């Protein structure tokens, strides 16, 4: 049962509409058990829930790193679940992904990592030769400046700290000029101060670009601080969908189970 519903302005076409989404990695063992989400707002939407409840699976279905078992994911007027080949490539380049462990190419420089965000827009040959346009190079430097890493542009990615790497990961995702950002536990490997800075950065880009950012996050207080909307998942289903202010201890008990951890 969904305990609260986010207000949806039906006159605004959703950025993303997920209907009846199911995912089973092995036949008969549903991990996602019928997910319905309509994202009409820009800014951060936080997805919370216990380990193993399917949060990463949900994001991986949206960017089609994995194939959903059933349901629809309507994005840019197309069903991502049905997209194949060139069509899928076009849709995926509009979905910027930020990973917990950054997923940078460690041996490449910081600026080269940011530029890889453009690969989906280039011909295979140009991508293979890493032949980026001057405009892309300018944009990459602007983004590096925006994330505060200009002086690190020519350093190898593996020489950066975790927080700096995540900034590169975000700049790379924004380099795609995405219509939505997905972030899978982007702060879990970071200290609390750096985690806040990363959330600030995601929020800033989401607002500037007027796009939503779906963020899987374990830290409920961080989620409440930055998200306009919180989606609480439990056992592969949505059990809360509403404003951070509306979350009560009862909701948290329903999402995470038990109560001994609540202080
Ligand atoms: N590739 C896979 N093959 C089989 N089962 C998988 C695969 N990936 C995830 N699972 C299972 O799906 C369930 C949901 O995993 P998922 O990573 O989506 O959860 P999560 O809510 O993101 O957890 P966490 O917060 O710990 O990252 C888990 O039981 C997990 O073992």
What does this entry look like structurally?
With 263 residues, the protein is an alpha/beta fold. It folds into two domains: 1-78 and 179-258, Rossmann fold (3-Layer(aba) Sandwich), CATH 3.40.50; 105-177, no CATH class. Helix content is 33%, strand content 24%. It is built from nine helices and ten strands. The chain has helices at residues 55-62, 85-92, 110-115, 124-128, 134-146, 162-175, 192-209, 220-226, 249-256; strands at residues 16-26, 29-39, 43-48, 70-75, 78-79, 95-98, 180-184, 212-216, 229-234, 237-242. A six-stranded mixed sheet has the order 6-7-8-3-9-10, sandwiched between helices. A four-stranded antiparallel sheet has the order 2-1-4-5, with helices on one face. The longest helix has 18 residues, at 192-209. The radius of gyration is 18 Å and the shape is globular. The two termini are 25 Å apart. Adenosine-5'-triphosphate binds next to helix 1.
Name its key features.
263 residues, alpha/beta, Rossmann fold, 6-stranded mixed β-sheet, 4-stranded antiparallel β-sheet, 10 strands, 24% strand, nucleotide-binding, transport, translocase
What does the secondary structure layout of this molecule look like, with pairings?
Elements: E1 16-26, E2 29-39, E3 43-48, H1 55-62, E4 70-75, E5 78-79, H2 85-92, E6 95-98, H3 110-115, H4 124-128, H5 134-146, H6 162-175, E7 180-184, H7 192-209, E8 212-216, H8 220-226, E9 229-234, E10 237-242, H9 249-256
Parallel strand pairs: 3-8, 3-9, 6-7, 7-8
Antiparallel strand pairs: 1-2, 1-4, 4-5, 9-10
The chain binds adenosine-5'-triphosphate (ATP).
Adenosine-5'-triphosphate (ATP) binds next to helix 1.
């Amino acid at each position: 049962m969904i305990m609260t519903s986010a207000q949806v302005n039906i006159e605004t076409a959703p950025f993303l509409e997920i209907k009846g989404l199911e995912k089973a990695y092995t036949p008969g063992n549903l991990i996602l058990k019928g997910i319905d989400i309509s994202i009409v707002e820009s800014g951060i939407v936080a997805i919370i829930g216990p380990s193993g409840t399917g949060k990463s699976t949900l994001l991986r279905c949206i960017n089609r790193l994995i194939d959903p078992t059933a349901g629809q994911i309507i994005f840019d007027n197309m069903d991502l679940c049905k997209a194949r080949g060139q069509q899928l490539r076009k849709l995926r380049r509009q979905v910027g992904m930020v990973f917990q462990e950054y997923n940078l190419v460690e041996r490449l420089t910081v600026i080269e990592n940011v530029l890889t965000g453009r690969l989906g827009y280039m011909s295979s040959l140009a991508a293979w030769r890493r032949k980026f346009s001057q405009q892309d190079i300018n944009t990459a430097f602007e983004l590096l400046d925006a994330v505060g890493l200009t002086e690190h542009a020519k350093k190898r990615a593996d020489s950066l700290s975790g927080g700096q790497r995540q900034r590169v990961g975000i700049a790379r995702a924004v380099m795609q000029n995405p219509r939505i950002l997905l972030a899978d536990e982007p702060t879990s490997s970071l200290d609390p101060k750096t985690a806040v800075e990363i959330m600030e950065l995601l929020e800033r880009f989401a607002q500037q670009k007027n796009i939503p950012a779906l963020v899987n996050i374990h830290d409920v207080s961080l989620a409440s601080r930055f998200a306009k909307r919180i989606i609480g998942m439990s056992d592969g289903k949505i059990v809360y969908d509403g404003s951070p202010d509306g979350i009560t201890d009862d909701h948290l008990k329903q999402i995470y189970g038990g109560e001994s951890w609540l202080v």
